[in-house]
Amino acid sequence: MSLSWQQLHELVGVPCEDQRVVLFSGISSLDEAGPDDISFLGNPRYQSQLPDTRAGAVLVAEGEWEVPDGCALIKVENPSAAFSKIIDHFQAAARHFVPGISSGAHIADDVEIDPAAVMISAGAVIESGAKVGKGTVIGAGCVVGRKSVIGEDCLLHPNATVREECILGNRVILQPGVVVGSDGYGFELVDGRHQKVPQVGIVELEDDVEVGANSCIDRARFGRTLIGEGTKIDNLVQIAHNVKVGKHTLIVAQSGIAGSTRIGNYVTVAAQVGVVGHIEIGDQVVLATRTAAMKSLKKPGVYMGSPARPMADEQKKMAAMPRVPKLLAEVRELKKKLDELRGE
After folding, report:
1. Which of the residues in the chain have pLDDT under 50?
2. pTM of the predicted protein model
């Protein structure tokens, strides 16, 4: 599917000042784009690639730019966000949705589902009492547990699992290998043996949540583990029982959030962050890569280090660390001289 010059401007919300007869057939990076491709400059570090790009059109921020030969620059407020709209356009055209239930799928007789409005692939299993909304795609090897609810226009990629009684809102995306509703990690030491604590709650994912490949969200011990509307979770993330995550929060790869912690709205949890249990991370907090949050952090801002501290404080500490060996040597020398003065 192609995109005309006029359609491109309409899609990114910029008035079209001329009527060129141009058709774009794809998207690409600045260094790989061809004359039929649209690209964007969203990060200053790639600015050096702009003069040599062969793209037919490039989305750029407001400002003065050198226009490459044969290329049109389209100025927008946020090039990355505008480019995402173009990606969505081409993805929607390429999306393969053929309504129906494969003969190789296993659907319990009492599942609430409209075969003419969903796409269920071979090997999928949907257990008794479950509900599946219109427009939803369930990939090969997926399991939807007993009495679970899957909303409308969801996409479960192959081998995703939604265990019993869990709830997915509308437009939820689960990448391959996601497990929603696995048992929380709960044990009590009784007579020298670890005894499993029953996990009888559920997990609820609100509308427009996306969960990356091989991430796990544990069911609550009782009640629910909740992921708020619009939150995006990366690959290989662990979210424990009874955690509550707010709306439009980002949780990045290999991070772990321990049980009963509260994460606010518009929080960013960067890669390999650890958050202990039973604390609160407030709205608009940013936890930098490899940060260890060991107590509640309620004030908006950027935190880093182990334990987490305001970024400015942690950077001062980091800057001082290389000087420590020299300072220790100077202290030892001063102590030696002081001992000599004392006659020791």
Report:
1. none
2. 0.84
